[in-house]
Amino acid sequence: MKDNILIIEDEVDIAKLIKVHLSELDLHCDICTQGEQALQQALTKDYQLILLDVMLPEISGLDICRQVRQVKPLQSIIMLTSKTSEIDRVLGLELGADDYMTKPFSIRELQARVRSQLRRVHALNAKSIAQNDNDKDTASVEVITQPAKEGVSIGQLHVDHKYHQVTYKSKTINLTATEFELIDFFCQHPDQVFSRAQLLDGVWGYHHSGYEHTVNSHINRLRSKLEEDCAEPQIIQTVWGVGYKLNSAGVSSTVAS
Predict the structure, then answer these.
(1) 85 plus 155 within the same structural domain
(2) 131, part of any domain
(3) Mean of the per-residue pLDDT values for the chain?
(4) What mean pLDDT comes out for the span 194-205?
């Protein structure tokens, strides 16, 4: 079955061009050129990926991103922005976009970004199917002991791969799919420092110069959900001039939140 892509772009020629080149990847694409119609379609239909332009009639792409993320927290979204609108790129990522591309962009880069996002979507779906199958298999069996969770734990931070869930200090942390992949990557390599380029390679599956905002914004969003004081982060720390690391001592703290 083909993956379904929603292209939200008010410039018809650009939307059609994107559709043609994504069709080369054997993807099914719908096009919406009006903001309100696009929002309703994004909320009511199932898409593996949404390509979302910022500048739209009726309602902005930023508002669409915010509303879709509230209803579908795991929806994969790539924002499309003009080369000069840095503030829109930052806002889009802060509102929950998984990635962004600046116009004009190359077809090869577009296809690479789409493939990268779809790999993450497919991995998440596979985990969900495996979980449901396991639940069905054990539904009629009396459970004597609680089975061990599949994942990785660093101090009081636990990443559960089976249920695609993160808990910290026994509290569930609501994350987007990309935020989950980022914290999981850090937990797999505690105290190791990664540059932005290495994180783009390791989590997003590519590296293109100029897209460091993708990493910065996701780090900020993770900090807002994990840290007691984002101004002085103890869990995801900045190593100036190098990059970021997960501080294992910070997540092992017993201080109550």
Answers:
(1) no
(2) no
(3) 83
(4) 86
Best CA proximity match to 152, nearest among 198, 177, 186, 176: 186
Lowest-confidence pick of 134-148, 189-203, 212-226:
134-148
The three-state DSSP-derived secondary structure of the chain is CCCEEEEECCCHHHHHHHHHHHHCCCCEEEEECCHHHHHHHHHHCCCCEEEEECCCCCCCHHHHHHHHHHHCCCCCEEEEEECCCHHHHHHHHHCCCCEEEEECCCHHHHHHHHHHHHHHHHHHHHHHHHHHHHHHHHCCCCCCCCCCCCEEEECCEEEECCCCEEEECCEEECCCHHHHHHHHHHHHCCCCCECHHHHHHHHHCCCCCCCHHHHHHHHHHHHHHHCCCCCCCCCEEEECCCEEEECHHHHCCCCCC
Has residue 53 been placed in a domain?
Answer: yes
Give me the pLDDT at residue 92, please: 80
* Residue 146 scores a pLDDT above 50: no
Asked whether the beta carbons of 63 and 38 are under 8 A apart, the reply is: no
Tracing tokens 């009006």 back to the chain, one arrives at 34
Find the mean pLDDT for residues 72-97: 81
The percentage of the chain sitting over the pLDDT mark of 70, rounded to a whole number, equals 84
pTM: 0.69
Q: Domain span at residue 9?
A: 4-121
**In the chain, what percentage of residues exceed pLDDT 90?**
44
* Same domain assignment for residues 99 and 41: yes
Same domain, 232 and 152: yes
Domain final residue pick, 121, 137, 172: 121
